[in-house]
Prior knowledge:
About 30% of the residues lie in helices and about 20% in strands. The chain has about 450 residues and is α+β, with helices and mostly antiparallel strands. The strands form eight sheets. A four-stranded antiparallel β-sheet has the order 4-10-7-8. Strands 15-21-18-19 form a four-stranded antiparallel β-sheet. It has a three-stranded mixed β-sheet with strand order 6-5-9. A hairpin with a 2-residue loop joins strand 12 and strand 13. Helix 3 crosses helix 6 (about 175-215). The protein is elongated, with a radius of gyration of 28 Å.
Amino acid sequence: MVSNFITTEYGPIPTDWDIKEIKNIADDTKDNSFIDGDWIESEYIEHEGIRLIQTGNIGLGFFKDKSSKKFISEKTFKELKCKEVKEGDILICRLADPIGRSCVVPNLGTKNITSVDVAILRPQNSDYDIFYINYSLNSPKTLNKVSSFASGTTRQRISRKNLGAIRIPVPPIKEQQKIAAILSSVDETIEKTEQIIEQTETVKKGLMQQLLTKGIGHTEFKDTPIGEIPLHWNFVKLEDISEKITKGTTPTTYGFEYVEDGINFIKVESIDDNGNFRPSLFNKITEEAHEKLKRSNILEGDLLISIAGNLGRVAIASSEILPANTNQAISIIRLKEKSINLDFLYYSLKGFAIEKYIKKVSTVGAQPNLSLKQVGEIELPLPNIEEQNKITAVLNSIDLKLKNEISKKRKLSKLKQGLMQQLLTGKVRVKINENEEVPS
């Protein structure tokens, strides 16, 4: 290897690397090596037969096998002269999101075709590692370049001609294989972490259903509007245990604009599905606006629940986000009873029974919404504080595991992005064998 570099649209790359147009990576000794899929009208769709791989099956570097599948018959395949997609082909999506994302076709156990908005790339096996090419196609720099050649107003797409003219850096085959192996090992770890997250979320859902309605160690139960609960539990409305249930308003209603720096202003999108705040999505208002909107000043320990748009997102206001305010899409619930565990109430509001209630009573217009009256009428099973604490401890422990695994996944994804940036442009060279020095 050598350590000299040449200048390209990707920045400097090693002089012993090539930079190739996508269309020239195709195996020109075989037919159908860089083509589009087939236009399949709805009348040809069947419940079994030859599988139609759709744009939704193409993830950012991986194949997404969904439960919902479409097929065509062998007869249709022959009549329309469809092109067969084979294991090891690279499928490149010519539509967002993002345009140009690709995946390697796995062994699907069926005969397959794909849709017209997908380009099929069949590289020359002796010169190209399909997994390296796939990683290179999904790198941020390549995707940005593909996006710059896209066109369309309502739905952007790139033509196969323009896609084929995109160039990517290509090292010698052995280096391609080593780079792909390194990135694949990170992907495997990410996949295992995703599986743990999915399994943990399933366990959490089951525990919530059990603990929030059946409690711990009870043998006697009573009927309530949400089903059986332990005999000695209370059944209360949210308004009965709250000092205040209110909501905010839009600052512009009172003539205030958002500012660059100031008091945090929380919207529905500022809270994720797991009850975490997303500070990067906070708006900011002035202290004057915060004082004027005093009704919706948020205090530490307030429960926030979204009541418009994405209904039922719940979070507990912590000191880290204060001072803060909110708009009319979020209800503020301030408890009057100190004998209620905040985390327990948070989990209760995230439970299946409340989700079912929200779906039942919400008004559907331009966007679904709940009134403050409907929020106050939410009915909750409520054990004594000791049992609340025990239930909360169990659910907190599983939430901590989830949080750690999600954090691990983020770090791995960041590591992968860094490796792609370094390895796919030759900024960092890989060893091909033990005796070989790594160029600087």
